[in-house]
Amino acid sequence: MDENIESLFKARMTIFEMLSDRGYTFEKYEMDNNIDQFYFVYKNLTNMFGLTIQAYKSNGNIILIFFPLEMKLRVNSIRSMLDKTKYVGAKHIIIVYPGVVTTFTKQHLNTYYNTALRVEQFCVQALQFNVTKHRLVPPHSVLSKEEQQKICKELKVVPAQFSRIYTSDPVAQYYGIKAGQLMKIVRSSPEGFKYDTYRYCIRGQIGKK
């Protein structure tokens, strides 16, 4: 079995878990339950959209997950994905790339920040396991706007007064939290009691000011 294809299959399984944890519904195919079938489909792909996943929120919002095949993600591929996104009517996409993103492509993707289209990127190697299932990672959840307002009112604080979590944090990326939102974390005390803590999400890289 080709290691690259096996890694892509694992990344795809993590994406399905991620979508479920974010509240999306989707359809899985035979290739998503059997790595041998996935290998067969991969080897017979005729275009970059053969592995695309389409998922839905209860409010009708659509998200597309693209799996480009090229080792260097280029602008032309991004444009093809955006044409597909526009045709479907989605406002949110995730790109799972196998290798590297060229500098020019990164600059191109940055132009979509703060636009109506949300673009997330994950390297295949970063999705080889579900980070939220690690034994040292407590349960996390992203608060809705209403929940955030309620917590701030109860605690008599503004969101920025909470400790921070960066958008680049692996758990933050997994849940797709955006800057300005609150993340709830359920921790356990040494005595075994559960208690809630909160983190305010800001845009940036871990370890950088």
Task: Please tell me about this protein's structure.
There is one protein chain. With 209 residues, the chain is an alpha/beta fold. The protein has two domains: 127 residues, 3-Layer(aba) Sandwich (Dna-directed Rna Polymerases I, Ii, And Iii 27 Kd Polypeptide, Chain: A, domain 1); 68 residues, Alpha-Beta Complex (Eukaryotic RPB6 RNA polymerase subunit), CATH 3.90.940.20. Helices cover 32% and strands 24% of the residues. β2 and β3 form a beta hairpin. It starts with a helix and ends in a 7-residue tail after the last strand.
As residue ranges, the low-confidence spans are none
Order of strands side by side in the largest beta sheet? Answer: 1-2-3-5-7
The average pLDDT is: 92
CATH H-tier superfamily of the largest domain? RNA polymerase, Rpb5, N-terminal domain
- Mind describing the biggest β-sheet? 5 strands, mixed
The CATH architecture term of the largest domain is 3-Layer(aba) Sandwich
CATH topology term of the largest domain: Dna-directed Rna Polymerases I, Ii, And Iii 27 Kd Polypeptide, Chain: A, domain 1
Q: Please give the count of helices.
A: 6
Oligomer: single chain
Overall helicity: 25-40%
Key phrases:
Eukaryotic RPB6 RNA polymerase subunit, 209 residues, 11 strands, alpha/beta, single chain, 2 domains, Dna-directed Rna Polymerases I, Ii, And Iii 27 Kd Polypeptide, Chain: A, domain 1, 32% helix
Summarize the structure.
This protein has 209 residues and is α/β, with parallel strands linked by helices. The chain is built from six helices and eleven strands.
Sequence-ordered SSE layout with sheet pairings:
Blueprint: H1 3-21, E1 25-26, H2 35-43, E2 53-56, E3 62-66, E4 72-73, H3 75-88, E5 92-97, E6 100-101, H4 103-110, E7 118-123, E8 140-142, H5 145-155, E9 163-166, H6 170-175, E10 182-188, E11 194-202
